[in-house]
Amino acid sequence: MSHKPLFTQLTQVEPSEIKGALTSFLFIFLLMASYTIMKPVRDALPSDWGDVSLARQWTYTFIVSTIAVSLYNVIASKISLMRLVPGVFIFFAATFFGIYLAYQFGVRPTLLGKVFYVWSSVFSLFHVSVFWSFISQHYTKSESKRVFGFINTGASVGAIVGPFLIIRLPSSFSVENILVMTSAVLLLTLPLIRILNNYFQDKESDGQKKMVLSSNPFSGFQELLTHKRLLGIAAFLFLFTAISAFLYSTQKNLLAEFDEEKRKQMLGYVELATNSLTIIIGIFATNRIAKRFGMPTALSMIPFIVALLILLLSMNPAIMLVLLLQVLRRSGNYAITRPAREILFTAVDREARFKTKPIIDVAVYRGGDVFWIWIVALLGDGYFNLGTSAILCIGAAVCIVWGFVGVYIGRQHERSEATEEPSPTH
């Protein structure tokens, strides 16, 4: 009979890891709450745009993301990690409050809507990337398989808050109010960062505490181009964005017949269902899948399942079926694929975690968005005029390739794990 606490039996988190895991859970809870308050409002905007107009907005997002990541790498080379992580969230809180002030001073709402769409899209990747850079440096490969699944459920719990407010209080939350609330919630993460810094300092050796980043502002880009493991992760994420683009475009086109308020409510329900399912999977299945079936399965399971579902959807691309597939795809990604991908970063050094990881998570992600949304636009009303069903079949083929890349990088990770168990800051 097991004498472990019930919490450990449910989550696989060891008693000595509970404080750090719970604080990290609350940290990412607040981060995701701050973002998903905005998300249904942001995602309702593109249904008033054409395919080419949406592609332009994604192009602007990629350009701004690349500039933001480059500046982040320069700053990361010049200040300590103790100041870097909280500084990122203070900066984003200030920028969202700045957009709020622009609304108050009467700047054209149409223009601000597009600025809001682009900047919130940059934020949607940056904040989580910095969070996982901060967390993953303190865990070994074996620890991460136990802890990351539970921590990641905090993102889903937080993500329920935003759509719940949108569903329950649609008339009370203008874009301006949402911006103020996002800024306030981001600032609540600052004391948690301090608690985690103290917790991890007590846990680690003096040598680990003194680790600093290279002063070379381009080292993150250099590591990406010269390390096969990092290139593999980048390719995996690039293909993930393809499926997002194919389904996002289909969703956008099918939602066009509804008014903006109805779109916000429908997308709010999608967020609520997605994150509720993610919590259930995250608590009871995520850690067990990686430990029992291995990293190749954890990384490829969702791609192969989604490929099959997209083929079935192509036979009847109705809006409710698209939204249901979005729920299944995104909850599977959040609960299984995303934690597995974060585990991959426990096998790289701190330089790669803090400098290369944001390049992959933000610039490569948004570059993939741009590439694939233009592909979708060209396949659709931009040039080839293919129907929704034909476009979805092409998306399914890409999804299968995504799955095989997951198998490959999962096997590479397990080979390295079999030969050594490096410290998290080797």
Descriptive key words:
mainly alpha; disordered C terminus; Growth Hormone, Chain: A; 426 residues; 82% helix; 17 helices; MFS; MFS_trans_sf
Structural features, described:
There is one protein chain. With 426 residues, this protein is an all-alpha fold. The chain has a single domain, classed as MFS general substrate transporter like domains (Growth Hormone, Chain: A, Up-down Bundle), CATH 1.20.1250.20. It is built from 17 helices and no strands.
Helical segment count:
17
Helix content range? over 70%
Whole-Å distance between the termini? 38 Å
User: What can be said about the biggest beta sheet?
Assistant: none
Approximate shape:
globular
Radius of gyration: 21 Å
User: What structural category arises from helix and sheet content?
Assistant: mainly alpha
Unreliable parts: 206-210, 422-426
From N to C, what is the helix and strand string?
Answer: HHHHHHHHHHHHHHHHH
CATH topology: Growth Hormone, Chain: A
Please describe the topology of this protein.
Elements: H1 6-11, H2 18-36, H3 39-44, H4 51-76, H5 81-104, H6 109-136, H7 141-168, H8 175-187, H9 190-203, H10 206-209, H11 219-226, H12 228-255, H13 260-293, H14 295-314, H15 319-344, H16 350-382, H17 388-419
Helix pairs in contact: 2-6, 2-7, 2-8, 2-9, 4-6, 4-16, 5-6, 5-8, 6-16, 7-13, 7-15, 11-12, 11-16, 12-15, 12-16, 12-17, 13-14, 13-15, 14-15, 14-17
